Amino acid sequence: MAVAAFVAASAIVPNLVLISIGYMVGEVPAAAREGLASPAGHTLLVALALAGIASAVAVLLGPIQTFLSTSLKWKLIYSMQARLMSAVSQPVGIGHLEQPQVLDRLALARGQLINYYPADAVMTLAMVASNRIGGLLACVAVGTYRWWLGAGMLAMWLAIRRPQRSVITEQARTFNTNAEVMRRAFYFEQLASGPEAAKEARIFGLGGWLIDRFRAQWTIGMTASWKALRRLDSRVLGLSLIVLAGYAAATTFLGVQAYQHQIALGTLCALLPLLIATNTVGDISWDDVGLAWMLEALPRVDELEAQLGTHHEADPASQQEAPVGDRPTQEIRFTGVVFRYPEAERPVFDGLELSIPAGVSTAIVGVNGAGKTTLVKLLARLHDPTAGVITVDGVPLGDLRAREWQRRVAVVFQDFVRYPLSACDNVGFGAVEHILDTAGMSDAARTAGALDLIESLPHGWDTVLSSRYKSGVDLSGGEWQRVALGRALFAVAHGARLLVLDEPTAWLDVRGEADFFDRFLDITRGLTTIVISHRFSTVRRADRICVLDAGRLIEVGDHSSLLATGGRYAQMFHMQASRFAEDSPSEDTR
Fold first, then answer.
1. I want to staple 310 with a disulfide (CB 3.0 to 4.6 A). Which of 263, 289, 305, 589 is the partner?
2. Neighbours of 267 (CB within 10 A)
3. Of the options 3.40.50.300, 3.40.50.620, 3.90.870.10, 3.10.50.40, the CATH number for the domain spanning 418-495
């Protein structure tokens, strides 16, 4: 209602200002002859008061517009961001976040690629509507003097609006087709201006290169839009001749009427600015351009929700899935599993056969690209197999409740997240519903070797782990890894049945690694654990060791049996051991 009232006032008041001022000017000669105390003077004062009131209301429309725009914008931003977050969070896995089409729609829906934000659409539409209605009312006001004069102005503006509008719509649609190019341009801009790549950008002298790449991608993405704008400019130039001819005819007619004393001064003074005011019924402004961009972006939210299967109610299919219960109690088995990333030339796994017994520790080793991290993603249902099946105690993983299963899996990825939040949040996110369990967080941090570190921070558990915030503190790589380990162990303390560590000691020194695993083996005894590591001092302690190569399992056993076999594991172990031996100083050189 408030927006509708604003639209009506914005359309009516400016025209009232023009009419009241014209009426006031028309009363000036008589008031000047007869004096302000005369009836003509009183009429002038009334006209002046009306003009003042109308002008004051017009001035107030500015702050009202700002208030409505701000209020609506933040409400819409909240609503749209909530819908976007819900849409991208709805799928069980993360494959959609690696699809260019999804990322393009997400960037457009957020208004990231240009300074026209979908959340501004309502007030921009309101302004465009008020302009259109205001111009229409100006045409009506002109038509009260001569109907054909008002109708002629309206016909002229409507005739020139359509060809301009089509170019603007084409421009917005063309830009949307280049969303991927624009995302790349902004990526280069972020690399040049953000702190993440600042060190390498300075050391390798990438500043100029990044600027050149940003300029090149931006130019590619905007070229079609610029061409459309140039067509619009040239079209406007041609149409302006029609407008000039229309104005010339209208003002000539009024001039002749005035010369022949067939029109009152007040009427003439009102009609001349009203003729100009009619342009808003058909003229194209930057509000029209911005609205076209916004209206093209708004459907992307609906498209994302449709594509990703967002539902406001529980999915009936999920009610048919089996509860996870205490699984795994026997084993997790990969049977004929094939997995290929979209657009990849070859699969990561091609008929993988693998058994992971419950309640024991299993180590996964292999050369880079063997699929170790992808195996973790499949276990956590961040991706589903392209073919084959993963079973948990004989039940296909796809038949278990996905969200419930993911809460049973605690993972420390090699590229774990460093949340710029408090130490409490960074550990508590392992079981966020139990984040008030301070004793449990302390136990998890102690086991991970992070408790002394956290308690030594300026504000203890409340210290923000980022130097970008006031009183925040950044941590070293090894310190961050201890915090991430604490997060996973806190998840285990609150129900996670499968603990996966992807290069868990990559940031730890030799002493820290030994200390961690001495405690790790004790606290995880009886728990199903999977350790992925290139350090054989780590994997040799596992109950079972699985060797992957080219997407297949080629060896399985414990450390001793694999060494005795003399296969790929033995070769990699001896190769790494020999490097340590070469790096160790001899007794004579100490």
1. 305
2. 18
3. 3.40.50.300
